[in-house]
Design a protein that fits this description.
- 2 copies of one chain form a homodimer.
- Chain A has helices at residues 14-20, 30-35, 39-45, 48-52, 64-70, 96-106, 124-146, 168-181, 197-210, 225-233, 243-249, 281-285, 288-296, 300-326, 330-342, and strands at 26-28, 58-60, 74-76, 81-84, 91-94, 110-112, 157-162, 185-188, 217-219, 238-239, 252-255, 258-261.
- By secondary structure, chain A is an alpha/beta fold.
- In chain A, the strands form 3 sheets. A 7-stranded parallel beta sheet of chain A has the order 1-2-6-7-8-9-10. In chain A, strands 3-4-5 form a 3-stranded antiparallel beta sheet. In chain A, strands 11-12 form a two-stranded antiparallel sheet.
- Chain A starts with 13 loop residues before the first helix and ends with a helix.
- The interface between A and B is large, with 38 and 38 residues.
């Protein structure tokens, strides 16, 4: 799922995202959209789909993660979390109930629960407390979801979030507790926040063992192409990550043969495509020398071409994974593919 | 002519520029392209068209204007102008001859002469000296053009540039002197550099009286939609301006009913199109509320949508002007149109 924090996948026009890149669903951030443009505007627009003119599914997170990562001053308590806006310092309260209400206004197809994502590293005691609060908030959030109705003409789903930091025992307990509540899908939260990749995989593996296989399993905020392939092998179905767009804006692109740092002087007179035959606008229309020039000159077109290329690559990778799974060739394919996409060119 | 300073019309992919916006020719800046990526890279690419993947005409300026406006340290002498790069401080020399050579390497369809653009205001004596130097350089540049060949498979043309600041007598002398040399087209330089609009029109009017009507007359760096309409009335055929893209990036758009400052809070809950029925991506797909949100949130998509809209508007205006001229209705149409496009909404 491409990430569209503020109602736009950074630099990509919606028709390009849908028709050329082939995104089937995008993400919106409740924290950001709640602060700007705010619920009143979104409500008047008739929901986020109308506001941004996007007629395919949207998943919105709860904003919890951003409260903890972006807001300097916050006060966590049983009722919810009070925080100051990173934009103007104004004070706000997020509760398990009001983030459901905000996501009713957004009209996202999939809404996420308010959770507490414990930092990495956290002590066992802190991680356990954060997990238990997350579970109590999950039950309150589900109740609010069950007692309210969608505002617009389409159905909404709600996903629970597993926490438990890097503690095996807590991850098992959290997966069971969240699975018991009866959400339409389940997310694995609190990973990819600085822990080593083997730990992330170990925790993911435990969670997918306990989360039901007949409902989508979503690993939040992950990750590199290698992370995604490996996590599919562990049973994950859904991913979101800012990496394709953020790395693209920083001049780093992903290809079928490995990653390319476009700023590197060695590309300045390389008139080849970054990945010959790859169906992105960048690879079809332009040379490495040209995109190197654009990125070094800080030209907006460079940010767009690299971002669009990376999104095309991520969606190509997801389609490739689905094909390998359908053909039952995934097990033979994936280790070699991880090696290829992880190379630095 | 949309301005593509560094081999890209800022934020606009080439296929959009050609197919959706309908640009028939774009501008490149010799000063910028000479410094980055440099003649060696452009030459290896087989010219600017190949480097940027643009198969329609390109006009390149001589770089003179940028030497005078961007370079802090410069030394003007009979041979040419020595200057320091605004990027890395390296020293370079532009002469009437070597800017022809650089534009042979660029392979632009229309190349411009090296001239001295006197600042506004300038004394009569200074303006006269700058004009006379411009004339001597024009003859040297034409000689260099006549004695060299295109590097690639297409023909190149060379346009002379009239100077003379805001002095009637000098403008007449310069128009005659430049017209005598035998260029394929003629540009009016040294205007839109801070003088009042009536002065710009007066000088333009004088130049078009003396520049032959059977060759294109090009008013450099002009201007607003109203400036363009008025200057067509005075006999100008060609224009270039950064305004559609630069103003777009600053959140200002041009419409058939006047200009809109997208940052203005009054648009935050206006769910109408900026110009209903206008064939730009912005007007077709999005509301004022959405583009207001994007611009206020400093989102890249906002810069793209506003820039693409403004270019679409400028090219629509040019097509409209051509239609009115062909139908011989221009004289009845243009004053009312100037009033409309000049309004602030």
């Amino acid at each position: 799922m491409p990430v569209g924090t503020l109602g736009t996948v950074k630099s990509i026009p919606q028709p390009v995202l849908k028709d050329s890149i082939g995104a089937q669903i995008i993400l919106g951030n409740t924290y950001h959209l709640y602060l700007r443009p705010g619920n009143k505007i979104i409500s008047k627009a008739g929901g986020l789909h109308h506001f941004i003119n996007w007629d395919l599914p949207i998943l919105t997170d709860s904003g919890g993660f951003q409260v903890f990562s972006l807001s300097d001053i916050r006060d966590l308590h049983e009722q919810g979390v009070t925080f100051q806006s990173h934009i103007d310092g104004s004070r706000h309260l997020f509760t398990p109930e009001n983030v459901v209400e905000t996501q009713r206004i957004l009209g996202s197809d999939i809404m996420m629960l308010l959770d507490e994502c414990a930092p990495n590293p956290s002590s066992y005691d802190y991680a356990k407390k954060a997990m238990e609060l997350t579970h109590r908030w999950a039950r309150r959030g589900r109740k609010a979801f069950n007692e309210t109705q969608p505002r617009y003409s389409h159905k909404q789903q709600q996903f629970g979030i597993v926490q438990g930091n890097t503690y095996k025992e807590l991850r098992i307990a959290s997966s069971k507790a969240i699975a018991d509540i009866g959400f339409e899908g389940h997310a694995i939260g609190g990973l990819s926040v600085g822990e080593p990749a083997p730990v992330m995989y170990e925790m993911t593996d435990i969670c997918t063992d306990y989360l039901p296989g007949d409902k989508p399993r979503y690993l939040m905020g992950v990750g590199t192409p290698a992370n995604i392939i490996q996590s599919v092998a562990l049973g994950v179905d859904m991913f979101d990550c800012v990496m394709p767009t953020r790395n693209g804006r920083n001049g780093m692109i992903f290809t079928r043969n490995g990653t390319i740092n476009l700023r590197n002087a060695k590309w300045k007179d390389c008139f080849e495509s970054a990945d010959e035959g790859f169906p992105s606008e960048l690879c079809q229309n332009h040379s490495l020398a040209y995109i190197h020039h654009l990125i070094r000159s800080k030209e907006l077109l460079g940010l767009y071409l690299a971002s669009a290329h990376n999104l095309t690559f991520y969606l190509w990778l997801a389609a490739e994974i689905r094909k390998q799974l359908e053909n039952q060739t995934f097990d033979d394919w994936y280790k070699n593919m991880i090696e290829k996409v992880d190379r630095k060119l």
